[in-house]
Each structure stands twice: as structure tokens, then as C-alpha cells.
């Protein structure tokens, strides 16, 4: 028994074909939207690639590829649906309709995968940001080293633009040397004592770069000797609201990219539902036109359906087809292997006369 069978007249078949023609052209626009969203996300990630340790371009690349494929498939689908208005033109597409529907179904599955990837990228992005920001803070002082001289400017712009400080917080700067040795007075006893007190010979202090200063604080920025209450007037670093950005840059960037990807994922899900709706209409049109050809009269009514048989029967038949295809690749045994071999007859020996 057919699943979700619908009877179509000549008029309704023509209207269905024209509506699907319009929807396929709208789907071409959705493909352009997918491509644009993937390109936008790729550019956003590329802006701060120095702050990431690993390549996280799988989602934008997936969206870009899916968008390009969507434009091609839906353009072809629009041409097919437009020709289905005329029975004679449908004959040229009859053999391609089923493969086209299968390819479109796989394509809609790829769209769903792309949407789910937008929601599952957070953990991968968080690890990449953690390692990337840690390395950027370690190389913050290397303004004279080729390949690293830009990291100070990158980190400062990041902390100013996103109003954040450090990786997880401003205390992260206490554990790295962010001042280059060429800006340290090595003749000063406090500098040499601080370098000697560290096992690795690093100049560590309870200070942060200027970009960590909160511009909305009425008090002048306290960026050095942050934990020393006696170094500042009327100051308690444990209780007073410090005039530094309190949020870590990793969490801020993670929230920024998560909001973008969740918005993109929601749009992609809507596109997936729309493509699934169009695919359902194309399936009805295909089955209705094939049943019409069997009847031979283009003016008669014809039935269309999603599945010709029930879901269980369709699954069993497809399983049999796959099983038969697997048998085609098996090597046949020797047909004579089971035939018993006949016993060799004894060849009579002839006696050779001996001369006397």
C-alpha cells in the first residue's frame, strides 16, 4: 500500500510543477545564503586565527560547499519541474528523476549535518582558544622577533575591543613575562632580584598591560602592583572593585563565536526544512507523472505518493537490492568442484613379444 497517496488532476499537476519551479528558484537563493553565511563565519574566524591553536574551518567550509551544491541542484530541479508541465518534455527527465531525488535527499541530509555542526563546535573552539590565547600571551613581549611582532598589537586590540583581560582573567598575566628584557634596567637591584627569584629567570610581577584597564572606571588605572595595598591610596585589591576588565578573553570570544554559530545554525535548520518540503513536492510530481505515462492519457487523473509500498516493505526491498549487489562481487566457485571425479580405468598392458 502506498504511503501518503494523493490523487492529482491535470490542472493540479500543472500547478504543482509551476509552484515547485518557483520554490526551486527560491532554493537557489537559499544556497546563496548558505554560501554567504559560511563565508562570513570563515572571515570572522580568520580575523583572529593568531589567537587559535588549531584549524576550526570545518563548519564554514561545510556551509560554503553546501551552498554551492544547493545552487546547482536547485537550478537543475527548477528546469525539471518546469518541463514536467508538459508530458512530452517529462520523458527526457524520466530516467533522471529518481537519481535526482536521491541526490537531493542526501544533500538535505548534508544541510542538517551542517546545522548540527554549528551547535557542536563550541568544545573544539574552546580548546583552540585556550591554547591560542596562552601562546599569544607568552609571545606578547616578543615585539622584535619576526613572526611574533604583531601579537602584542593583536592582544591589545582584542582586550580593548572585547573588554576582557587575560585568558581566564587578569591574574593570568601574573604568570607570564609580558615585558621584554630590553625594556628592563638590568643595573637596578629590584629588577635583578626579581629575575633571580624566579627559577626560569623570568621577570614576573602582579601587573597587566594597559589594554586591561577599564575605561569606564572613574579612578586612574592601577595596572602595576595590583595585589599591593600599600602601594596605592585608599585601596584594597580583594574587596574594592578593580578598574580592570574582569572577564577573560577566552570566555568572551567563545560567547561571541557561539552566538554567531547558533544564529547561523538556526537559519540553516530553516533552510533544511524548506529543502525537505521542496523535495517532498518533487517526489509527488515524479510519481504522479510516471503513473500518468502508464495510463497513456495526459488528461486523466494520476496518483502520487512518497513511497510506493509501506516503510517496512520498502526497507526489505532495498535490503534485498543491496544484498544482491553484494553477491555480484563474489567470485563464483568452480562449477566442477562438486562433481565427483571418475575413477581412472586401468589401461591394459600389452605384452611385447620377445625375440628368441
From TrEMBL:
Coiled coil: none annotated. This is Peripherin 2-like b. The keyword Transmembrane helix applies. Keywords: Membrane, Transmembrane, Transmembrane helix. Gene3D superfamilies: Tetraspanin. The keyword Transcription regulation does not apply. The lineage of its organism: Eukaryota, Metazoa, Chordata, Craniata, Vertebrata. One of its GO terms (cellular component) is plasma membrane. It is a multi-pass membrane protein. It holds the Pfam family Tetraspanin. InterPro entries: Peripherin/rom-1 (IPR000830), Peripherin_LEL (IPR042026), Tetraspanin/Peripherin (IPR018499), Tetraspanin_EC2_sf (IPR008952). It comes from Hucho hucho. Belongs to the PRPH2/ROM1 family. It is found in: Membrane. One of its GO terms (biological process) is visual perception. The chain crosses the membrane at residues 20-41, 62-78, 98-119, 264-285. Its main location: membrane.
